[in-house]
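Researcher: Let's continue the batch. This sequence belongs to Vitamin B12 import ATP-binding protein BtuD, and it's 387 residues. Same format as the previous ones, please.
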Amino acid sequence: MHDLSALPEPKPPLMSRTPSSETRTTSGGIHARFLVEHSGFTLDVDLDLPDRGVTAIFGQSGSGKTTLLRCLAGLVTPVSGRLSIGADVWLDTANRLCLPTHCRPLGYVFQEASLFPHLTVEGNLRFGLKRVARSEQRVVFDQAAQLLGIEHLLRRMPSGLSGGERQRVAIARALLTSPRLLLLDEPLASLDRQRKEEILPYLARLHDELDIPVIYVSHAPEEVARLADYLVLLDNGRTVASGLISDMLARLDLAVARADDASVVMPGVVIGYESTYELLTLALPGTPVTMRVVHSSMRLGDTIRVVVKARDVSLTPQAPALGSILNVLPATVVGIAEAHAPSHVMVRLDVEGTPLLSRITRFSSDRLGLAVGMRVWAQVKAVSLLT
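Model: Same format as before. Here are the structure tokens for Vitamin B12 import ATP-binding protein BtuD:
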């Protein structure tokens, strides 16, 4: 990743000033248009992002993810660009407007927690609280500590915390600035698998319980599937595609849908529970189709994320006889594409309005005579719930 922090400001210099009536826009959401050129690398993006939920910026190393985040934070000044958060304009190079970082109401969490080593956990948190006037506080101390599960750590020093604990403290400190926007730059990248599993549920709680838009940079598909509502794919400084994650992960024109570990994410609503078998029944959105998953009891009406890997979906042209697979779903073939491995193909299915992927061998595809429009039965061998 190129370090563009030393990029010179455009000429004539932009004015660092607070927004006035002339710098407000009537459109909602987040609009970000940046052109950055430095040392042979160009970031050229024009994005309209939702102002709710988690937007994941996904791509390989060097694709421009961190540079995009630094533009949002004001740490990199684009050659040209515009950034608006709801009705407030933070950057407009055409009108020589650029709010400095300290004037942007945002929280930024880096790959390393960067806690103050001489302060306790509580001291670090209260430092974040001091950055915002009491009248503008939307997140209070106890709420942040509880959301991140760090109440028992308040008297500890950073040196005595695990990597996952340090990151949870860093996120809580960022929340206590009551940001309009929370930026997370691969916050799990330096953690081992156990620590990642420790912190992911807390990140999911932020998604569920706070009305603060989150921009989450990652190159880990499992993190994106678990957390994101909206997905932006970057490659070599350009936007490949963007959209709702449920649509993006099933698009056969994108590499992410043709990878060996390709999967789809869909919301499921709990409509039943059989305690004898510890079996949940989930309704898929907007369809009469249901799925059954072995899991502990959950409240009726709860919405959870369902993840199905393409390699766990087999196809048959006829309704199978009684078998051990819990979920056999009626589907229509809507697309067929080459997988990364030449011996396999990826099949996009429509399950009464819900997209699903199946990764099968090319031999099986030819033997079944798969074609767009064909009705099949999708046998889902494994389902993961992200709770």
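Researcher: Any comment?
Model: The first strand starts at residue 30 and ends at 38.
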